[in-house]
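Weekly modeling sync, notes
Attendees: AB, CL, MP (scribe)

Item 1: holo prediction request
CL wants a bound-state model with pyridoxal-5'-phosphate before deciding which constructs to order. AB pointed out that an apo prediction alone won't tell us much about the pocket. Agreed to run with the ligand included and paste results into these notes for async review.

Input as submitted:
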Amino acid sequence: MPGFELWSDKERKEVNDVLETGILMRYGFDGPRKGIWKSKELEEAICKRFGCNYAQLTSSGTAALSTAMSALGIGYGDEVITPSFTFVASFEAILSVGAVPVLVDIDETLTLAPDAVRNAITPKTKAIMPVHMCGGMADMDALQAICKEHNLFLLEDACQSIGGTYKGKHLGTIGDAGTFSFDFVKTITCAEGGVVMMNSKELYEKCDGYTDHGHDHKGADRGADLHPFIGYNYRISELHAAVGLAQIQRLDEFLAIQKKNHGILKNMLAKLPGVSFRHIPDPAGDSCSFVSWFLPTKEATVAVVNEMKAQGILAGNFYWFDNNWHYIRKWDHLKNATTLNSLHPELKARVMEQANKDFSASDEVMGRCISTAISLLWTEEQIKEKGEKMVAAIQKVLNEQTITN
Ligand SMILES: *Cc1c(COP(=O)(O)O)cnc(C)c1O
C-alpha cells in the first residue's frame, strides 16, 4: 500500500535539488531558488496524471479537506453528510470550518449507503462527502444523482484511494472537489502533504489564497499581495513536494505491484465458501491497496481475528469494527464533543447527536469485515505463505462454528 516502502534514489535526488539551493519555501525567493519549483511541478504533474484542471497542494490531507470546504463556502449552520466508517480527519475537517458532521450508515461498498444519505438530507445540508475507503470507491452515480436533485456539493475524500478510478475518471476528480493525502502511509507520500483537485478556476483561486494567509499571489512581490479574504497557513514545503514529485512518477509502478499482489491474495481467499468481498461499484477501478473481505457472521469474524492473533499472523489485517481511528463505535471524543476550545453551543449539541444515532446497519457490515493491507515488498512466495496461513485460520474457525451450531 504505501509508497514509503520503496524509498529510492529518485526521492533523494528530488530532495537534494532543494537542499542545494536551500530555498525550502514554495513561494518567493525567485532568484536564489535557481528555477527549482517542486510544489508547482508537483501540482502540474497531479493535474496531468489524474485529469483535473487545477491542483492545490496543502500541508496535509486534513488541511486539503478544510481548504476545499472553505472554498466551497461550507461553514456555520451547514451540514456535511459523511460516512460512519472513515478516518477521523473527515469529521475533524468539517468541524474546522464550523459545519456539522452528519454521520450516516455505510453499505458493502464500505462507504456511504445512498439510501442513508437521502434520509439524512435536511434544508441545511450543503455537501455530501463520500470517503473512498481502502482503495475502493463509493457508488458515485447514485451520489451524483442525489447531489444534482438536491443541489448539493459533492466533495470526494479520496485520501486512501490514489490511483483508483470510477468509469474511467480518477477518484478525487469526479465531484466539485476532491482530496488526496500524501501522509506517510498513503499510496504515494510526501512524508506529510495533501492536495485539493478541482476543475473550477474560481474555486482554485480560493484554495490558493486560503492555504497561504489569503495572499492573492497576483504580483511578483509577495509583500505587496492583497488579501481578498482571510486565510490560514496550510502550505506544503518544497522538501515535502520534492518527495511527492519523485513518488508520483513511480505511481504506475506501485499500482502494478499492488494489483498483482492483491490478485494473488484475493484469489486464495475467494476459494473459501464462507468468504465474500466488499462491493466495488467499478471493479476495474480498484486501486488494490487493500483486499476487504467478509465472513458470514460477526462471531465468526471475531473468532478469525482472535485465531490470527494467536497464530501471530494478524499484522496487516484490520478489524475496523474495533478500531479507535476509523469507526464511529469508538469515537467517544466525537460523541462527547470533547474539544480543547469551546464549540458554539448549537454546534456542540449537533455534534453530540451522533451518540444517539442508530448505526446498526453499519455495525452489521463492519462487524463482518476484515481488510488486509497489500504490501509492495511481498515476494510471491511470501504472499502465498501469508494466504495459506490466513485460509487455514479461517477454515479452522468456520469448521468449528458449523460443528457448534
Ligand atoms: C489519511 C486520511 C486523511 C487525512 O490525511 P492526513 O494527510 O493524514 O491529514 C483524510 N481522510 C482519509 C480517509 C484518510 O485516510
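Recorded for review: The pocket of pyridoxal-5'-phosphate is lined by residues 60-62, 86-87, 89-90, 131, 157, 159-160, 181, 183, 194 (CB under 6 Å).
Action items: CL to compare against the apo run; MP to circulate these notes.
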